[in-house]
From TrEMBL:
Cross-referenced Gene3D superfamilies: Electron Transport, Fmn-binding Protein, Chain A
SUPFAM superfamilies: FMN-binding split barrel
A Pfam family matched in the record: Pyridox_ox_2
The protein's name in its UniProt record: Pyridoxamine 5'-phosphate oxidase family protein
Organism: Thermoflavimicrobium daqui
Classification via InterPro entries: Pyridox_Oxase-rel, Split_barrel_FMN-bd
């Protein structure tokens, strides 16, 4: 992979990267097919060093996943707007992670069930009285009659970067350029 152009924003702390992957609720999977490039927002779980998500057994996303490609999955955390009296220097404080790798359909019913259980524990912790059963996963059909299929992205490369919060420059409702110019 090519190095980050703005290396000063790179985050290499694997613990911080994993924490963002664990707490972010929506990730974005970049795909390409004969209709062009598109990005799909997904619920997901970072579990056992992989990104798991689920879907139908057919459709545009599934067709695009049939190619033996390297895919990109992205999460980002918006930390607020950073102000500057110079318009071109106004920006966003953020932390983002991009994971690149191959995507596989999870073949093992046990692994698929465990991954879906991890996803339930992420999104609705403590809600269900018992663990998800393999029988439920195996027999479930959506309203359209489709079985649930679990996929995993196996990262070959993960990059992360941030533009940190600058407390004194963070925008809040009512803050104006004139207020900041008076401080100088």
């Amino acid at each position: 992979m090519r190095p980050l152009r703005r290396a000063m924003k790179e985050v290499t702390d694997s613990k911080r990267i994993e924490q963002l992957l664990e707490r972010t609720r929506v990730g974005y999977l970049g795909l390409y097919d004969e209709e062009g490039t598109y990005v799909v927002p997904l619920n997901f779980v970072w579990w056992d060093g992989k990104i798991y998500f689920h879907g139908s057994h057919e459709g545009r996303k599934i067709d695009a996943l049939k190619k033996d490609e390297t895919y990109c999955f992205t999460v980002a955390e918006d930390l607020g707007t950073v102000t500057s009296t110079i318009p071109a220097k106004t920006g966003t404080a953020y932390f983002s992670v991009m994971a690149f790798g191959k995507i596989e359909k999870v073949a093992s019913l046990e692994e698929a069930t465990d991954a879906l259980e991890a996803m339930l524990n992420k999104y609705v912790p403590g809600y269900f009285l018992s663990k998800l059963s393999q029988t439920h996963v195996e027999k479930y059909r959506s309203g359209m009659g489709s079985p649930t299929v679990v996929y995993k992205l196996i990262p070959k490369h993960i990059s992360a970067k941030e533009d940190p919060v600058q407390e004194e420059n963070m925008y809040y409702t009512g803050r104006t350029q004139m207020d900041d110019l008076r401080k100088k």
